[in-house]
Specification:
Chain lengths: 279, 279
């Protein structure tokens, strides 16, 4: 069994992105992400630290704009509009969900496609759906594709079963896999025989948000298992796959933590550098 | 073998929509579609006649705005903006592709989501992708869903294989099927064993645009076959399914012509009436 870990992927990608960032900096452009955070939610803060570290390692900027929990809609709106206009800002990430008093649908659509680094706007969702080469996909599903590419897993003509149909992972991931010419099956809570749909796949992408729901009965020999789940159970992180039971049975698997989730910040960096190149 | 024909579906829907339109008219609102046609392409004209007939049968308006083949971008743009603002217009349909000198991407996105009766804008594509209940899906994939509903074919938990991944049919159809809680497999030209992917389905939706590509080796007993293809071969219309060879083997099949294609104008009517109700 091979373990597909984030670390070598991130190291290789960071090296590549750092070289691109260095070229941009020699032209006076410092690739910069603006993070908009309302309040101090612990998971936002943890992700923020990961982003800042990743951007620093490639010599890029990630600047946090912290707003109080009771901030007004107008203040967030004006900040997003200002950041969207600012030529020194190449990408914008706003942590969500926002507090309930803020109109999230209105706010997330204020960022233009080229600066929407994690696909929060409807227009970028449309581009992911159409796969027309415009805008950026959400970082997590793209991390799955980048990991498969790094570990040299071909996708063309392969059967991929995606478990989960969220707009954050399942559906955009299905579109990215189609772009790579995989044959994609999308499963969910109403799928009748999930075991069969999983067993027949070459690759399983588990993105249901249900701790260890993919067990030994779902897998078969030679499979690649991409675990996108990040769940907290009894104070410990675990994925959507029962790692201990499944890993001895398959060809390759991503651990949680240390797998897909570890590659997402590199995707954010990729988008910000691409945006900086285009400006 | 049952034949799922458009006629009874359209008759039932038209009756329903006519009642809704009558209520609107009693309040002084005449549901109205604006058709924008550039040039005189024969297939546009044929579709236009079908639309006008369908709208007349429900007592609704379908007004054609014909523009010459060499019309300028500005003229089309101004017409679309004017129609979008016009309170007496509840839906807009622009025949595409447009002549090459016109920027189709810019023009198709000028229509607001609520008037975009056949999902030509990116924003409505995003709503179809998210299935968030806003905007209207493209008429052809929705016709598939309406036919299955009329013929009382349950979708929840069913395996559906969609052959084709276009933005006109395959991908939006996959999203509509997911909404109905089907387990959806999307196949395409790079799918390795299309026969197997089709045979294992409860329902096959053929939307590849390849004449009679689905043959007896693709089907199995008890299946429902929805043929979305409309191809011209030797001067005769045929679908993506080899009807003569496949129909004796399955539970139900849509003919071409007289099947899915016949229901699309009713979907257009549905959207225009829904839009008129909301205004």
């Amino acid at each position: 069994m091979r373990e597909f870990r984030a670390k070598p992927v991130v190291e290789a990608l960071t090296q590549e992105y750092k070289e691109q960032a260095d070229k941009l900096k020699s032209r006076g452009v410092v690739p910069a992400l603006a993070i908009v955070r309302v309040g101090k939610r612990e998971d936002d803060l943890a992700y923020e630290r990961g982003i800042i570290k990743r951007f620093e390692s490639a010599g890029c900027e990630a600047k946090v704009h912290e707003l109080p929990e009771d901030v007004t809609f107008e203040t967030v709106r004006d900040l997003l509009i200002q950041l969207d206009k600012d030529e020194k800002v190449h990408g914008i990430l706003m942590f969500r969900p926002l507090p309930k008093h803020l109109d999230e649908d209105a706010l997330r659509n204020l960022v233009s496609a080229g600066k929407d680094a994690d696909c929060m706007s409807d227009i970028n969702a449309a581009h992911v759906f159409a796969q027309d080469g415009v805008g950026y996909p959400p970082c997590t599903p793209e991390a799955v594709i980048e990991m498969l590419r790094f570990y040299e897993v071909p996708l063309k003509g392969k059967r991929v079963t995606v478990v989960g149909r969220s707009m954050v992972v399942g559906k955009p991931l299905a579109m990215l896999l189609l772009k790579e010419n995989a044959t994609v099956t999308i499963c969910h809570t109403r799928t009748v025989d999930l075991e069969a749909e999983c067993q027949r796949a070459d690759i399983i992408c588990a993105a249901a948000g249900a701790p260890r729901m993919i067990g030994p009965d779902h897998v078969s020999e030679g499979q690649i298992i991409m675990d996108v789940g990040i769940n907290m159970v009894d104070g410990k992180l675990c994925g959507d796959v029962d790692y201990d039971a499944v890993s001895p049975l398959v060809d390759a698997i991503t651990p949680v933590p240390g797998g897909v989730g570890g590659v997402t910040t590199a995707m954010l960096l990729k988008h910000v550098i691409a945006s900086a190149k285009g400006m």
